[in-house]
């Protein structure tokens, strides 16, 4: 299933902001990590309806990936 591109952009912004707060990093660093993460294409492509998951859940998924790559 594909989501409206404008709604996806707003979702990305909320997830990135939540992730930045969780990690205590700048929005720029969170933005860069997000667009190079394994989670981003899953959300973008609608895999397993990831775009329907809550912002907090997606931020936690990013946090897990971030901590594994550290």
Describe the protein's architecture and organization:
There is one protein chain. Helix 1 crosses helix 2 (27-35) and helix 1 (5-23) packs across helix 4. The chain is globular and about 30 Å long. By secondary structure, it is an all-alpha fold. The chain has helices spanning 5-23, 27-35, 39-45, 55-69.
Summarize the SSE layout with pairings.
Layout lengths: L4 H19 L3 H9 L3 H7 L9 H15 L1
Task: Label this structure with key terms.
single chain, 70 residues, mainly alpha, globular, 0% strand
Question: What is the 3D form?
Answer: globular
Percent range for β-strand residues: under 5%
What low-confidence regions span 5 or more consecutive residues with pLDDT below 50? none
Structural class: mainly alpha
Gyration radius, rounded = 11 Å
Mean pLDDT: 94
Number of helices: 4
Major sheet characteristics: none
Q: Could you tell me the number of beta strands?
A: 0
N-to-C series of helices and strands: HHHH
How far apart, in Å, are the first and last alpha carbons?
A: 32 Å
Helix fraction?
Answer: over 70%
């Amino acid at each position: 299933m594909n989501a409206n591109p404008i709604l996806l952009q707003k979702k990305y912004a909320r997830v990135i902001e939540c992730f930045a707060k969780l990690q205590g990093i700048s929005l720029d660093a969170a933005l860069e990590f997000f667009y190079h993460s394994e989670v981003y294409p899953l959300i973008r492509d609608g895999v397993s309806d990831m775009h329907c998951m809550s912002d907090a859940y997606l931020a936690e998924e990013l946090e897990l990936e971030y901590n594994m790559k550290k």
